[in-house]
Hints:
alpha/beta, 2 domains, binds acetoacetyl-coenzyme A, Enoyl-CoA_hydra/iso, isomerase
Amino acid sequence: MSNTVLLEVKEQIGYITINRPEALNALSSQVLSDLDRVLDEIKGNDDIRVVIVTGSGEKAFVAGADIKEMDKMTPTEAFEYMTYANDVFSKLEQLRQPTIAAVNGYALGGGMELALSTDIRLGHEKTLLGFPEVGLGIIPGFAGTQRMPRLIGTSKAKELIFTARHVKAEEAVALGILNRLVPAENLLEEAENLARSIMKNAPLAVEKAKHVINVGIDLPLQNAIRLETEAESLLFSTEDKVEGMGAFVEKRKAVFKRK
Ligand code: CAA
């Protein structure tokens, strides 16, 4: 079996590693299909509570879609490649588990777009992001033109996409692309600490919060608020809600069961 994407599970954290260091983890069709398979495994694994996505090697998170593969594509093949990548990235975005990108170096083009499909992004001082696509005669094709404006606003997204410039880590934090920076040697550890601080809480509540935010952001406000109210009332039927509020009243630590 191909191993361009690795999945490891430790203490209820699923680690996805894009594993093509010789090509700076560029997203070939094989990588996309391996990522697709790994996401299906995660979807079916109730033991995984939080997912961390990172890249192999010291240099790159992901340096983009595979330019050498795209170089030979016909428009029809490009359509299929982009459509498949978008299906896979949407699967990542819609995972019920919260996802954290540990952006450990270059996150360019498709690499930035992969990071944008996660919930929370941590970087370090050498993390470098950007959309080089217009310099290659194309545009971001894994939903960068859509997710980035929704995250940072149209004007700032247009500047990044039109200039194709590299954005340093501090600026990426100021723009709201990265949540924060941590020392390079602690990146994975900080991602794990963040994962554990999420895992202390009621899993179904965290999953519902993610769903309501993801779906609600594209709805008219009143419909989105209604979605929230319905999700909230459903959570009142869970054992974990009884446990969470009971533990507060009884002044003890809650023990959640994802029930
Ligand atoms: N696709 C295919 N191969 C890539 C790659 C990519 N996106 N990025 C790097 N590589 C390969 C290089 O070709 C090189 O392989 P060889 O040793 O066989 O020549 C290897 O990875 C190491 O890369 P460099 O020697 O270039 O490393 P560097 O440190 O000198 O430069 C870099 C690093 C600035 C990231 C440079 O590799 C680079 O500019 N990469 C391309 C970045 C890019 O343009 N990404 C956007 C792609 S388009 C896209 O993603 C479209 C979309 O949205 C669908």
